Amino acid sequence: MSMKKYYPTAFALYMTYFVLGVAGSIMGQYKQELAGLWGAQLLADGTYDVSGVLAVIAALGLGRLIAYPFAGPISDRFGRRVPALVGCALYLIFFAAVCYTHSYALAYILGVCSGAANGFLDVSITPSCMEIFKEKGTIANIFTKLSISIAQFLLPFAIGFVAAEALPFSTIFIFCAALIAVTGIALCFLPFPPFERVVKVKGQKKEHMKLSPSAVILIILGFTTSSTFMIWLNCYQELAISYGIADPSKVQSLYSIGIVLALFANAALLARGLKPSKILVIYPSCAAVTLAAALLIQQGWICYPAGFLMGFFAAGGVLQLVTSVAVEMFPRNRAVMTSIVMISSSIANYAVLSIAGALTSIGGANGPRLIMIFNIAITVVGIVLAVILNARFDKDFQRETANN
To answer: N or C: which end of the chain has fewer CB within 10 A?
Structure first.
């Protein structure tokens, strides 16, 4: 009952992830406007060259990679409030400034700030969920994905409203700046739950985290589970077009619905006692079958159920489950373990999409199918690792929690 006093804190933290959901996709929706603002070259067809905007969007991944090595230790030593406030401050800078700069260089720096904000919030929210909701911490952590999904679902409607009312495109950016400012002020005063502080003692030999094979597998699963949905999300469009679909965005809508339904399904399954490690086998297996069907059934209609199923089985909180299981193994280093898994995810974001780009260049018209094969291969690797994890998890879990 005493933990109920932290529920407003949890709500405020979920609100930061709502803003995070907008930050992760809004620049992609306003590429032309931002390109014009930043002085991009005007092309022959009257549109702006958006390659610079894409570079700024990619900077979000760089910002995450920069933040995680520092953010995790800060959270475990000084508390969850500190990285939460740093994340809010960085998002405030990003949203308040990115629409008013006329320099690509400054925009790139702001993109890095946005990614770093993501990193600092991750190491605050995931441990906080585990500490506030205790036995239901894994379920609570899954619902951080719901906050992101709600934001990304509402964003197109907000963009439509701004356009219909002839408001400047910066309206949504300024709204998010105000929202994160108010949330940050609230987090200055709201109580955070107690945590097991990591304190450096002078003259004491530094103790290093001891990683069992299961912990290493979980870190790698952070890469494979992220890769599965990142490749689909960024590359299905060309496959759908090659199958004759004129408007692939409809597939995206089904993908989003799949994510939301999966979050509730996962919560129900976990509440009924299904181990998260079992889901890490079942869901990627279903995702692999879905990818194989999309590859083999070369007709437009397959993309619609495939989009829904990929949202459900690949993006519906699987990465959050990996993170939660890893964090439970290291009760004294929860934020550090969150950082390690998320670093693995960030590397996947950069690496697999770079490979997908190379496959597009090499494969030409067959590029989309080569990317699907590549995605299936990575997903199968994750399935094999998840099977190994289940075979030895209980023994490694007991040893890790005892040592760490």
So the answer is: N
Q: Rounding to the nearest 10 degrees, give the CA dihedral for residues 270, 276, 278, 279.
A: 80
What is the spatial distance between Cα 68 and Cα 74, in angstroms, rounded to a whole number? 10
| pLDDT tens digits, 81-93 | 999 999 999 999 9
Q: Give φ, ψ of 357 to 5 degrees.
A: -65, -40
Averaged pLDDT, 96-103: 93
Give the three-state DSSP class for 245.
coil
> In sequence order, which residues have a C-beta less than 8 Å from that of residue 148 and are 6 or more positions away?
17, 18, 20, 21, 24
Is residue 15 within 8 Å of 8, Cβ to Cβ?
A: no
Distance, C-alpha 350 to centroid of its chain: 13
Supply angle C-alpha 324, 393, 126, rounded to 5: 10
Q: Write the DSSP assignment of 114-141 as a string of letters.
A: HHHHHHHHHHHHHHHHHHHHGGGHHHHH
- Burial class from Cβ neighbours inside 10 Å (0-12, 13-18, 19+) for residue 260 reads middle
Q: What does each C-alpha distance from 317 to 64, 188, 206, 266 come to in angstroms?
A: 19, 29, 34, 8
Q: Convert the pLDDT of each residue in 193-221 to its tens digit.
A: 887 665 555 554 555 667 788 889 999 99
Rounded-to-integer distance, Cα 240 and Cα 249, Å: 10
**d(C-alpha 229, C-alpha 106), whole Å:** 30
Residue 328 main-chain phi, psi, to 5 deg: -65, -25
Judge whether 338 and 282 are in contact, CB under 8 Å.
Answer: no
